[in-house]
Amino acid sequence: MAKEKPGTLEIKTFATHHVITQPNPLRKVLRRIPPDIDHDDPVARAEQALADLSGEFKQWMTIEADRLSAAHAVVLRHGFSHETREELFRAAHDIKGDAATFGFPSAGAAAESLCRIIEHAPDLDHVPPELITHHINAIQAIVRERTKLDTSVMASALSRQLRGVADEFLLKVNRDRPEHLEAILAPSIAPAE
To answer: How many CB atoms lie under 10 A from the CB of residue 153?
Structure first.
């Protein structure tokens, strides 16, 4: 069976411009389903699967927060090495990525702030240890207390405050490194509540 030749470009000329319309070969393969026929909705199935799993989100976030604490404990015992830095960064980065999906956006914002410190501090050994500890404690508290109704506003405020302190520190230590200043001054990419 020979394929049909694709349609040709349609060009309409006006006084100030041309409008070029391409043929749409996919129009021929599209099949419309009448509304009275029950059909599969992959988006609805995905939303249902997410709803079915939502009971496990707190447990998963607890596991991620514990992994972050364990990585921090290794740093406290042995100091920063390439391996300990990478594990701390990966644990914080995973929380940053998972937190909004699991219903913990403030934990994601705090984890993003911690990632920024690890990524942009010229020497992690000179980062005040309390700054990293406060981030980890905040993430632990947000995950642990998320079930209480009044914690959402407090968690958001805490995450914003941590980001402000982290940015202030990073601006100070990177004042001679202009290539980092643009990234430090960029707005947060973590979803907020």
So the answer is: 11
Q: Is 67 exposed, middle or buried (0-12, 13-18, 19+ CB in 10 A)?
A: middle
Using DSSP's 3-state secondary structure scheme, residue 105 falls into helix
Looking at residue 80, its amino acid is F
Whether 68 contacts 91, CB under 8 Å: yes
pTM recorded for the entire structure: 0.67
Q: Dihedral sign for Cα 148, 151, 152, 153, please.
A: positive
Helix (H) or strand (E) holding 134: helix 129-145
Report d(CA 11, CA 62) in Å as an integer. 59
Distance CA 82, CA 103 (A): 31
* C-alpha span between 20 and 135 (Å, rounded): 54
Is pLDDT at 7 greater than 80 in this prediction?
A: no
Task: Give residue 106's identity as a one-letter amino acid code.
Answer: S
Q: In this predicted model, what pLDDT tens digit does every residue of 81-137 receive, in sequence order?
A: 999 999 999 999 999 998 888 888 889 999 999 999 999 999 999 999 999 999 999
Helix (H) or strand (E) holding 170: helix 151-173
Inter-axis angle of helices 105-120 and 178-185, nearest 10: 180
Tokens representing 104 are 């913990």
What is the number of alpha carbons within 13 Å of residue 10 lying toward its C-beta? Answer: 6
